């Protein structure tokens, strides 16, 4: 799925989230702006300039525009950059023309989206640049900020990563706690086979394995059911053997658990299809921007 397609699919959700953020900030009851600006002063049209204040990957520029369009449908924008661009400190990104009042009340909400999304995109891009085998993909996880997931995963895509499981309805992913509910991996595979799950699949089917024993069970019984095997918290020394066995039997391979910029190189192996990295959406640092007018 492209970023454009993602935005189109989630357009209603995005607009609702922006509306909620504007309500949270009580933008139409800005007591400071009401106190200081007369009607004539507040209605005066101005051009404000969006500036980048540190090197980063730009993400969320279209969301920034959507914030101001919710406040003023006639707001006019002139863009000098686009989402996905590598920006240098001091880059002039965009000009927005609307009333002084609108600029003041929308500034913080618009910047909040832009700064966080650009931070996540920048961290993702850093991982992508470190990929040794370019056919592998960097994926987000569901470790996202509540009610901000649609923006954070869009930022991951903007930074060069790819979409993974967006929510619990997106795909089947059997994890350790699911296994415990049935007993162990053998019990899970017996259940799946007894129900002829492979005949009913409508979603991508993934299963998490934590030990060599669980891996052997999935390889033995999972063909035709499991599409992706997640090697979760596998020690780097055990990866090569697991990858060889999985590839020989036609499984896609995902590696996850404890991966960060310091140890990423140790986890990279030829044959791994996906690296899912929680820090992309739970440990990024917001990028710095300012709106000058």
Quick structural summary:
The chain is of the alpha/beta class and 293 residues long. The protein contains 13 helices and twelve strands.
Q: How would you sum up this structure, described in words?
A:
The chain has helices at residues 3-9, 11-24, 31-36, 39-43, 61-71, 100-129, 149-158, 176-182, 185-194, 212-221, 236-248, 264-267, 279-282, and strands spanning 45-52, 56-57, 76-79, 86-87, 92-99, 137-139, 172-174, 205-209, 228-232, 252-256, 274-276, 289-292. The strands form 3 sheets. The protein has a 6-stranded parallel sheet with strand order 6-11-10-9-8-7. It has a 4-stranded antiparallel sheet with strand order 3-5-1-12, with helices on one face. The protein folds into 2 domains: 3-122 and 285-292, Aldehyde Oxidoreductase, domain 3; 129-282, Aldolase class I (TIM Barrel, Alpha-Beta Barrel). Helix 10 links the parallel strand 8 and strand 9. With 293 residues, the protein is α/β, with parallel strands linked by helices.
The biggest beta sheet, please? 6 strands, parallel
Overall number of domains: 2
Model regions low in confidence, pLDDT < 50 over at least 5 residues? none
* Structural class determined from secondary elements: alpha/beta
Q: Give the number of DSSP strands.
A: 12
Question: Helical percent range?
Answer: 40-55%
Task: Based on Cα principal axes, name the global outline.
Answer: elongated
The first-level CATH class name of the largest domain: Alpha Beta
Radius of gyration: 23 Å
Task: Give a quick set of tags describing it.
Aldehyde Oxidoreductase, domain 3; TIM Barrel; 2 domains; six-stranded parallel sheet; 13 helices; 45% helix
